[in-house]
C-alpha cells in the first residue's frame, strides 16, 4: 500500500517537471532553434507561407532560386514527382514563348533547351495543338518561378528581367535550365529525404516564411532515381541561399571543402533526367 501511495504521489511531480521543461518566460522568446515561446510554452515554430514576404525576400536577395517552385497545397506530398502523370510523354515538352522576350533572351532560352537536349532524350518542341504545354512568360514581378512537373493545360514558367522594377534578372542560362528542370519534374536537391546525411540546415539563419524551402521531401512520394546526393547539381541551392545574414550559411555540407550549388548541368543531373524519362543511353 505504501508503495502505491508513493507511486501515485510521484506521478504529478514527474508531470510538473516535464511541463516545466517546456515552459518559457516571455512570448516571442526562442526556446530551441526551431521553437518559439508561444503562450508560455516552447512550441515548434509554425511558418505560414506568405506570398508578400516571399516577394520581399526575393527583392532583397540575389538568390534567384529561393522559393522558385510554385507552391501548391499538395506540393509536399508529390515532391519528387513520382506519378507518371506529372511527366511529359516521351520526354517531349511543348512550349510557347511570350512575344515580349527580346532576341537575346530568346537566344538564352534556346541555348538552355539545347543544353538539356544535348545529353538527354528530352526535347523541346514549339506547341502546335498539344493540350499540355509550358508558356515561358516574361513576367513583371514574379521572379523566376516554375511549377514542378506537367500540370495539365497551359502552365506558366515566369522569367523576369532586371529592367523590370522589382523583377529578378532571370536571364542566365543556369537559371533558365534550373526552372526548366522544375517544369520537367525535378525538385531541389537539398530537399531530398536523405539530405541530412550530406548537409546540415542552419535554421537560425532562415527567416520563418522561407523555411518551407528547406523542408525534406516525403520519402513515400519522392524519388532520387538511385542517383547519389549531388552537391553540385544545378538544382542545389547555394550555401547561403535564403540566409537572413547572407554572410552566414543556410546549408552546411558535411563533406569538408565542398561548395554547394551548381551553375550548369552536372553529370548526375544528366543521369537523373535520363532515368526519369527512361532514355536509352547512347551505345
Ligand atoms: Zn528552383
UniProtKB/TrEMBL annotation:
Task: State the signal peptide span.
Answer: 1-21
Q: Coiled-coil region(s) at which residues?
A: none
Its domain of life reads Eukaryota
Q: Which InterPro entries match?
A: Astacin-like_dom, Peptidase_M12A, Peptidase_Metallo
Q: Which residues form the Peptidase M12A domain?
A: 79-280
**Cofactor binding, note field:** Binds 1 zinc ion per subunit.
Gene Ontology biological process terms from the UniProt entry: proteolysis
| The keyword Heme is assigned to this record | no
Q: Which residues bind Zn(2+)?
A: 178, 182, 188
Which residues are the active-site ones? Answer: 179
Q: Which cofactor does it need?
A: Zn(2+)
Single Gene Ontology MF annotation:
zinc ion binding
**Keywords (A to Z) from UniProt:** Hydrolase, Metal-binding, Metalloprotease, Protease, Signal, Zinc
Protein name according to UniProt? Peptidase M12A domain-containing protein
This chain's source organism reads Allacma fusca
- Provide the organism lineage as a comma list: Eukaryota, Metazoa, Ecdysozoa, Arthropoda, Hexapoda
Amino acid at each position: 500500500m505504501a508503495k502505491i501511495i508513493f507511486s501515485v504521489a510521484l506521478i504529478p511531480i514527474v508531470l510538473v517537471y516535464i511541463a516545466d521543461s517546456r515552459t518559457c518566460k516571455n512570448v516571442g522568446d526562442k526556446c530551441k532553434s526551431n521553437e518559439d515561446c508561444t503562450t508560455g510554452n516552447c512550441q515548434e515554430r509554425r511558418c505560414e507561407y506568405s506570398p508578400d514576404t516571399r516577394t520581399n525576400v526575393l527583392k532583397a536577395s540575389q538568390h534567384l532560386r529561393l522559393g522558385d517552385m510554385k507552391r501548391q497545397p499538395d506540393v509536399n506530398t508529390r515532391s519528387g514527382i513520382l506519378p507518371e502523370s506529372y511527366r511529359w510523354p516521351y520526354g517531349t515538352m511543348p512550349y510557347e514563348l511570350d512575344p515580349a522576350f527580346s532576341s537575346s533572351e530568346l537566344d538564352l532560352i534556346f541555348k538552355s533547351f539545347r543544353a538539356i537536349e544535348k545529353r538527354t532524350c528530352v526535347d523541346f518542341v514549339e506547341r502546335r495543338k498539344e493540350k499540355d504545354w509550358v508558356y515561358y512568360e516574361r513576367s513583371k514581378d514574379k521572379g523566376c518561378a516554375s511549377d514542378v512537373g506537367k500540370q495539365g493545360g497551359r502552365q506558366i514558367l515566369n522569367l523576369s528581367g532586371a529592367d523590370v522594377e522589382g523583377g529578378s534578372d532571370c536571364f542566365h542560362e543556369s537559371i533558365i535550365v534550373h526552372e526548366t528542370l522544375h517544369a520537367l519534374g525535378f525538385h531541389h536537391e537539398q530537399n531530398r529525404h536523405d539530405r541530412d546525411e550530406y548537409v546540415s540546415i542552419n535554421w537560425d539563419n532562415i527567416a520563418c516564411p522561407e523555411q518551407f524551402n528547406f523542408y525534406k521531401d516525403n520519402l513515400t512520394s519522392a524519388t532520387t532515381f538511385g542517383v547519389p546526393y549531388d552537391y553540385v547539381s544545378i538544382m542545389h541551392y547555394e550555401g547561403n541561399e535564403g540566409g537572413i545574414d547572407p554572410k552566414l550559411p543556410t546549408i552546411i555540407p558535411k563533406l569538408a571543402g565542398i561548395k554547394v550549388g551548381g551553375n550548369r548541368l552536372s553529370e548526375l543531373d544528366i543521369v537523373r533526367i535520363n532515368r526519369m524519362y527512361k532514355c536509352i543511353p547512347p551505345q
